[in-house]
């Protein structure tokens, strides 16, 4: 076989390139300290590396969520602790004001600090983290609470009258009703529409009384004007009040009003059950209600029977929690021949109840969209665990709350329930009439803002009995706050546990990734030196054999 110069040259170039390529690969591995730098190095290993990296990215995101949740819950915990400290101080002041050894001047002095404490509590209830409100549910872009004027009366029957308060006052306005003719004995009743019914009011705690107020009745409404106070009260229907002694305002036989400070909750809540939209032929003839636990996303339920099905037959259905992209199929609601309703179970504990309304059937393909009402903001802290970082302020601090869904459901109807020492109906000026969450006496005693608002009112008006009642309620209100502190603390502990677990998971993933990806440095250095020797040997042998100098051919 003849060996030509071209064959020699091609073979030597091939050997040089092969040795250089191997040397460069080893050099790259030495630089990166990785034995797999591209898929061609180890296709199976690269697949495993990418999987581990995805897991590590997920763990990093969970760690970031935990850090964010710590900020939210830490802010809430600090705010609630400060509120509890303020309640303790309010109890000390109320204890002083409740005793008979202090007079009206002392109670007035105490009221200044109590009003300041009340305003501090409102500020703490409006606490935020990174510009997001902590206690407003999902309405995080604004404050959870706003200060308003509210009304307390000693007349339980009159307390059922719905009203609007316009304007504001820096002090509690004490109002009494009187008979301008003097014909009605103290304690007897008169109607708001009676032209002889008059008012007197005080803006200095009852020391002096003003008679320039006016009570007019027109178009079914009574307008109570209190010009020196800067407030105006509108009663939206006629009502009966007890008249007071025209000569002695200290006699408590008649109806008294305390127009005093309070707080309205303007966040959202999760009290109402989920709404259900019915889609498809025959949907209007079937009743659908949802209950139980749902995630914050909408759930679509689809009837999968091939023909019309009655409620007392087996109903096959699917449901989707991502807007119809994917469906959980094969679900069956077993037949119940004793009922005209069928219960369909949804993941996470949700229930959809369908009623026939007189023998109506479900049609194939008919759908129901469940729209949960939720105020929770939850962050994923692991692949299977979420933690709530926010709170609904009205369930912690109380205050006055208008449920917008209740307004829509009632069609603007007036709801006029009340409980002792606190009216439960509010109408903002010029707005549709709205129903409030109704609370009994036990719930009222936990309503911190209502208790504090009444305490301020009673200290400003030298009402020792009222102060004693609010002092007792402060204990319940503080217990409510302490329970919420414990709730926040429990969620903080979950974060600590999850953080420790994530640390262990991340360490394991990094160890597994290193075992696949990282190079053995000692072995790599040995290979690198050997390959360098090989490359240099190829160069030397090539230069000896290949005489490429042109002078050799002249």
Structure description:
Among the domains are: 5-33 and 519-553; 275-372. The protein has 9 helices and 27 strands. The protein has helices at residues 5-32, 43-98, 104-125, 394-397, 404-410, 441-446, 448-460, 464-517, 521-545; strands at 128-129, 132-133, 145-153, 163-167, 173-179, 189-191, 197-202, 214-218, 221-226, 231-235, 240-242, 256-265, 275-279, 287-292, 299-303, 315-320, 328-333, 341-346, 350-355, 367-371, 378-382, 385-388, 400-401, 418-419, 422-423, 425-426, 434-435. Strand 24 and strand 25 (422-423) form a beta hairpin. The two termini are 26 Å apart.
Shape label: elongated
What is the structural class? alpha+beta
Q: Specify the number of helices.
A: 9
User: Termini distance?
Assistant: 26 Å
Main sheet properties: 5 strands, mixed
According to DSSP, the number of beta strands is: 27
The Rg value, from CA coordinates, equals 38 Å
- Strand coverage percent: 15-25%
Helical residue percent band: 25-40%
Q: Estimate the mean pLDDT confidence.
A: 84
Enumerate the spans where pLDDT stays under 50 for 5 or more consecutive residues: 407-440
